[in-house]
Design brief:
Radius of gyration: 37 Å
Oligomer: single chain
Largest sheet: 5 strands, antiparallel
Number of helices: 25
C-alpha cells in the first residue's frame, strides 16, 4: 500500500508539473524557430545573441502582462471609487493623440480666442514660453501619398543643356555610367539618352535615363535567400578558394556586400549623386523605375512633385519657367539640387530662309528650291532593294563632306530655268536660330514642367504647400510679375494625396458607423455600445502617440549587443499616408475586442447577479473584470508580439508594412486601458440606474415602498 501510495503521489505530482513542462518545451521550440527565422540583430551577431534578445523582448512583454494581472484589481477598485479622476487619464490621452495629429495650435486654437473675454491679449499667450514649447514640440504630422517602396534599383534622370549635341550627350552618359558602375554596391548600370522611334516615348535628346540596380545587403541565391560562406573566426575573415571566390558553407556567415558606412539605400543614392556630378548637367530627385513610370503615365512629369506651367507663347513660357525655377530654389523645404525647369527655347536650329525676290530673277519658285534642299540634305528614296524577305530603301543625297557645315550648305547648287547652277547662298539665307526642343500642350495650352524634390525627411504635401505659399507671397508683393494668360498648378503625388484624402474622408466615418452598428446589434443597448465604442478613441490616441514616439530621437536610443534599437526598429519620423490610415482602419476593427469581451461578461453577470447597493455593484464589476482579464491580455499580447518582426523587416514591402503596423502597435498597447474604462463606465451607468430606480432596479423602488 505504501508503494502504491507513493506511486499515486508521484503520478499526481507529474500530472501537476506536466502542463508546465509541456508549455516550457513549446516556448523553447517557438523561441528557437523564431530566432532562426527572424534574426532581429542580424546574422553577423550570431544565433546566441539573437536568442538572448528574442528572450528578453518576448519574455519582457509577457512578464509585463503577467504583472498586469496582479495590479489589475487594485487599479480597477481605485477607478470605481474615483471615476471622474480616473476617466481624466484616457481623456488626456485622446487630447494628446489629437495634438500629435493636428498640432498644438490647431487643437487648442480656441484658447487664445477666449482670452479676450478675461482681458488678456492672445498675442501674449501665444508668445509665452509654455505655449511656444508646445507649438514647437507638436507641430502636427506631415502628409504624403504613400511611403516610397524599395524596388532594389534607382532611376537617375538628369538633363543636359538644350544646345548640347548628341555626341556630347553620349559622352556625358558614358562618363556617368562608368562613375556609377565603379561603386562597390552597384550591380549594373544601363543608360539611355533620347527617345525610341515611338510616339509613346516623347523624351527629348537632353533627357538621360539611367537604370541602376544595386546589390542586396547580403549575398543571396537566385531565390533571394541569404547564402552562408565559410568564415575563419581566428583570423576574422572569410575563406576563399584558389580563384578568390567565397566558399559556401551552411555553418558559416552571410557575406555583407555593402561598405561599412553604407547602412541604407538612401546612403547608396547619396553616393550615386556624388559620383555622377558633371558640369553642364543637372542633378535629379530620388527616383525608382516603377514608381517613376507610374508618375510619368499619370502626370507626364518625371518627378514625384512639380509645377505645370501654362503660357500663351513659347517665349513667355520659357521666361516664366526660369523665373519659377529660381524662386523654388529659395524655399527652405526644397532640395535646390533637384529643381529643374524645362528649357523650352534653346535648341539650335539650322534655318534656310528662301529669298523670293532672288529666286524670281532666275525664274524659280519656292518648290524648285525646296526640292533641291530636300534631296541634297535630307535625301530622297529612289528605289527599294529586295533581299529575301528584307527590303531596304535606297536614298540619294550629297556626301557628308558637302553638307556638314553652313558654308558647304551655302555652296549647294540649285539649277536655274536655263540649267545654270546657282549656289544656294545667293537665293537663301542660311543661319542658326534658337527654337523649342519639344512643344508640349495640355488642354490646348502650351505647357512646361518645373520639377523639384524635398529635402530628406520632409513630407511631400508640406513641401508643396510651402512652395505654393512662397510663390503666392512673391506674386502679392510684386516680386514675381505674372503676364496675362499665364497660370500654374501643382501636380504629382500631391494630387494623389488630395484624392486619397477625399476618399478616406468617406471611408473612415463609414467604417466607424458600421462598427457602431455591429456593436449595437450585439448588445441591443446604446449605452453599452457607446461604452465599448470608446475603446476605439483610446486606441486611436495610442496609434498617434506611437507615431509621435517614433519621431523622437530620445525614444529607444540605446544599444543591445552593439545594435542601436532605433536603427533596429527603424524609428524615424512617420508622415500620414494612405498606409498609415489603412493601419488605423485595421486597428479600429480589433480595438473593440477587449471591450466586447468584458462588456459581454458584465452584462451576463449583472443579469444573473442581483445587486442592491453601490458597493455590490462595484464588487460585481471587479469580480467580472478578474474573470476576463486573462482572455483580454491574450488578445493584446498576440497582436503586439505578431507585429514585432514586421517592425524590424527590411525586405520588399517593408516600407508599406511598417507604417501600417505602427498604429496597431500603439493602439493595442493602450487599448488595454479599456479593461479599466469599460468596467468603470459600465458601473457608472448601473449606479445611475440604481439611483434613479430604472430598468432592472425598478423593483427595488417598489420593494422599498412596501
Amino acid at each position: 500500500r505504501t508503494a502504491l501510495a507513493r506511486l499515486d503521489g508521484a503520478v499526481a505530482a507529474a500530472a501537476r508539473v506536466a502542463p508546465w513542462i509541456a508549455s516550457a518545451i513549446a516556448v523553447l521550440a517557438v523561441g528557437w524557430i523564431l530566432t532562426g527565422v527572424w534574426e532581429p540583430l542580424g546574422p553577423e551577431r550570431g544565433f546566441a545573441r539573437n536568442a538572448v534578445f528574442v528572450t528578453l523582448l518576448v519574455g519582457g512583454l509577457l512578464g509585463l502582462f503577467f504583472v498586469f494581472q496582479f495590479v489589475y484589481a487594485p487599479i480597477l477598485r481605485f477607478g470605481l471609487n474615483h471615476k471622474f479622476l480616473f476617466l481624466a487619464f484616457p481623456t488626456v490621452l485622446v487630447l494628446l493623440g489629437a495634438t500629435v495629429w493636428l498640432g498644438f495650435d490647431r487643437t487648442f486654437g480656441f484658447i487664445p480666442a477666449t482670452t479676450r473675454l478675461v482681458g488678456l491679449r492672445p498675442e501674449t499667450l501665444c508668445a509665452s514660453a509654455p505655449w511656444s514649447w508646445a507649438a514647437h514640440e507638436f507641430p502636427g504630422l506631415g502628409r504624403e501619398f504613400m511611403p516610397p517602396l524599395d524596388e532594389g534599383s534607382f532611376l537617375w534622370m538628369p538633363t543636359t543643356m538644350p544646345h548640347a549635341s548628341i555626341g556630347e550627350g553620349l559622352e556625358v552618359l558614358r562618363h556617368q555610367d562608368m562613375a556609377i558602375g565603379a561603386l562597390p554596391e552597384i550591380d549594373s548600370v544601363t543608360g539611355k539618352i533620347g527617345r525610341t522611334e515611338s510616339a509613346l516615348d516623347p523624351a527629348p535628346t537632353t533627357m538621360i535615363e539611367t537604370l541602376i540596380a544595386y546589390k542586396p545587403e547580403y549575398a543571396t541565391d537566385e531565390a533571394g535567400r541569404r547564402i552562408n560562406f565559410r568564415y575563419d573566426r581566428q583570423r576574422g575573415e572569410f575563406v576563399r578558394d584558389g580563384e578568390g571566390r567565397l566558399i559556401p558553407d551552411p555553418d558559416g556567415r552571410p557575406f555583407r556586400q555593402w561598405r561599412d558606412h553604407i547602412r541604407t539605400p538612401q546612403d547608396i543614392w547619396e553616393e550615386i549623386v556624388a559620383a555622377a556630378q558633371i558640369p553642364g548637367t543637372t542633378s535629379a530627385p530620388k527616383l525608382q523605375p516603377i514608381e517613376t513610370r507610374l508618375v510619368m503615365l499619370q502626370t507626364g512629369m518625371r518627378a514625384a512633385m512639380g509645377i505645370k506651367l501654362r503660357a500663351p507663347d513659347l517665349a513667355t513660357l520659357e521666361r516664366m519657367a526660369v523665373a519659377l525655377e529660381g524662386l523654388v530654389r529659395q524655399v527652405p523645404a526644397v532640395n535646390p539640387a533637384t529643381v529643374n525647369a524645362e528649357r523650352v527655347v534653346g535648341k539650335p536650329y539650322f534655318e534656310i530662309e528662301i529669298d523670293r525676290t532672288a529666286i524670281s530673277r532666275y525664274g524659280l519658285n519656292i518648290v524648285d528650291v525646296q526640292d533641291v534642299i530636300s534631296v541634297a540634305l535630307g535625301g530622297r528614296t529612289i528605289t527599294t532593294t529586295v533581299e529575301g524577305r528584307e527590303r531596304f530603301p535606297v536614298r540619294v543625297r550629297y556626301p557628308r563632306e558637302l553638307r556638314d557645315d553652313p558654308e558647304a550648305i551655302r555652296r549647294v547648287l540649285v539649277p536655274a530655268m536655263d540649267g545654270s547652277p546657282i549656289p544656294l547662298g545667293e537665293v537663301a539665307t542660311v543661319r542658326f536660330a534658337r527654337g523649342p526642343e519639344m512643344i508640349r500642350s495640355e488642354d490646348t495650352f502650351l505647357t512646361a514642367y518645373v520639377t523639384f524634390g524635398p529635402r530628406p525627411g520632409l513630407p511631400e504635401v508640406e513641401v508643396v504647400e510651402q512652395v505654393r505659399a512662397f510663390l503666392d507671397s512673391r506674386v502679392a508683393t510684386g516680386a514675381l510679375a505674372v503676364p496675362p494668360g499665364v497660370s500654374w498648378r501643382f501636380a504629382g503625388n500631391y494630387e494623389h494625396q488630395l484624392r486619397a484624402a477625399r476618399t478616406l474622408a468617406v471611408i473612415l466615418p463609414l467604417s466607424l458607423l458600421l462598427i457602431f452598428l455591429i456593436l449595437y446589434f450585439q448588445f441591443k443597448s446604446v449605452a453599452t455600445t457607446v461604452i465599448v465604442f470608446s475603446g476605439i478613441a483610446v486606441a486611436w490616441a495610442g496609434g498617434f502617440t506611437m507615431i509621435y514616439f517614433y519621431g523622437q530621437e530620445w525614444f529607444a536610443n540605446f544599444e543591445i549587443f552593439g545594435v542601436n534599437m532605433r536603427a533596429l526598429f527603424q524609428l524615424h519620423a512617420i508622415n500620414l499616408s494612405v498606409a498609415v490610415w489603412v493601419g488605423f482602419l485595421a486597428l479600429f476593427g480589433i480595438a473593440t475586442d477587449d471591450g466586447v469581451v468584458i462588456a459581454t461578461y458584465l452584462t451576463q453577470s449583472f443579469e444573473k447577479r442581483r445587486t442592491e447597493t453601490v458597493a455590490q455593484l462595484r464588487a460585481a464589476t471587479v469580480a467580472a473584470g478578474l474573470r476576463r482579464v486573462r482572455p483580454c491580455l491574450m488578445t493584446s499580447a498576440t497582436t503586439i508580439l505578431a507585429l514585432l518582426p514586421v517592425l524590424t523587416a527590411t525586405g520588399r514591402g517593408a516600407d508599406i508594412m511598417i507604417p501600417m503596423a505602427i498604429p496597431s502597435l500603439g493602439g493595442m498597447s493602450l487599448v488595454m486601458l479599456t479593461m479599466f474604462t469599460v468596467p468603470v463606465l459600465f458601473c457608472l451607468v448601473e449606479e445611475i440606474k440604481l439611483k434613479l430606480k430604472v430598468g432592472a432596479y425598478r423593483d427595488l423602488g417598489t420593494e422599498a415602498g412596501r
